[in-house]
Design brief:
Layout: E1 4-8, H1 20-28, E2 31-34, H2 37-47, E3 54-57, H3 63-75, E4 79-83, H4 96-104, E5 108-112, H5 117-125, E6 132-137, H6 142-151, E7 158-163, H7 168-179, E8 184-189, E9 197-202, H8 203-210, E10 218-222, H9 235-247, H10 252-263, H11 267-281
Parallel strand pairs: 1-4, 1-5, 2-3, 2-4, 6-7
Antiparallel strand pairs: 7-10, 8-9, 8-10
Helix pairs in contact: 3-4, 6-7, 7-8, 9-10, 9-11, 10-11
């Protein structure tokens, strides 16, 4: 019989949040794959657990090379426990590669649920929680970051991001640029830890606050785009939406069709607004631009 892969959620801050089952799995696993073996040692000591199994490192740098070894152990009947530094393995942490390989080999995969920075921040944000998207970390380069944000500029669901503290001010400024400075958001810092803080407000205000410097583990929750009545959308807003989609990589024809569908308007009306804006921007003013085809 094959073994079992267990994904174990670990506390994101307060060690007393660890469920009893985590201690039992740590004590009984044949192999423990840990993102940081030093942190694992501190965790087991805090829980009063003495692992009986073999402990190996499993982090971004060796994930590809270590996965076949762990799959071999699973196929041999071992119970393999995967833990990351905090939260749930594979959610912006190592683990997805191993889970995919285990599933491919018909190995049973289960989980020990634990604290989640995503859900904790979402619940504390004060923003709508009935529908949301987890976007993970944004790209580090400014241009790629703006492009990624433009892709979700009209997303109506609440958005959740992870971010490094030294990039938070740039990220919030980029969000204010793409989403609008008045879009509501919450910056959740050091969740469940001694210096936990939830700062709520418009993106422009939060960006100004973050410019002074912020420390700790950061989760950002952003309100989704407001649902607008298509009949109330002006030509300027229609053109802006088309441009956002074009900058995200869509062809103009598809962008116009998508915006028209969102707004409940005929494609011709959106097309005419785009053409008028193009003509107005061209040298010499209206009527001097090269005709635009839909």
């Amino acid at each position: 019989m094959t073994g079992t892969l267990v994904l174990a959620g670990t506390p994101i801050g307060d060690i007393t949040d660890a469920p009893p089952r985590l201690a039992a799995e740590l004590a009984g696993a044949d192999v423990i794959a840990a993102e940081d073996t030093r942190r694992l040692r501190r965790l087991t000591q805090a829980l009063g657990v003495q692992p009986k199994g073999r402990v190996v490192s499993y982090f971004e740098g060796n994930e590809a090379a270590r996965t076949p070894e762990l799959i071999e152990a699973l196929l041999g009947g071992s119970r393999v426990l995967l833990v990351t530094d905090a939260g749930m393995p594979s959610v912006s942490d190592p683990g997805y590669r191993l889970v995919a390989a285990a599933v491919e080999k018909d190995v049973r995969v289960t989980a020990v649920p634990g604290p989640s920075a995503v859900l904790t921040a979402l619940a504390l944000s004060g923003l709508p929680v009935d529908r949301f998207c987890f976007e993970g970390f944004l790209p580090r380069k400014a241009g790629e970051r703006l492009s990624r944000l433009r892709e979700v500029a009209e997303e109506r669901r609440t958005l959740v991001y992870f971010e490094a503290p030294h990039r938070l001010d740039d990220t919030l400024a980029a969000m204010a640029e793409v989403f609008g400075g008045d879009r509501r958001a919450a910056v959740c810092r050091e969740l469940t830890k001694t210096y936990e803080e939830v700062r709520r407000g418009p993106l422009a205000e939060l960006a100004e606050w973050a410019a002074e410097g912020v420390r700790g583990e950061i989760t950002v929750v952003v309100e989704g785009a407001p649902e607008r009545d298509g009949g109330e959308l002006g030509a300027e807003e229609l053109v802006r939406r088309v441009r956002v989609r074009e900058e995200a990589g869509e062809r103009r024809k598809e962008a116009i069709a998508a915006v028209a569908a969102e707004a409940g308007l005929p494609k011709r009306e959106v097309f005419d607004a785009v053409v008028a804006a193009k003509n107005a921007e061209a040298p010499g003013g209206p009527g001097s631009a090269t005709p635009v085809t839909p």
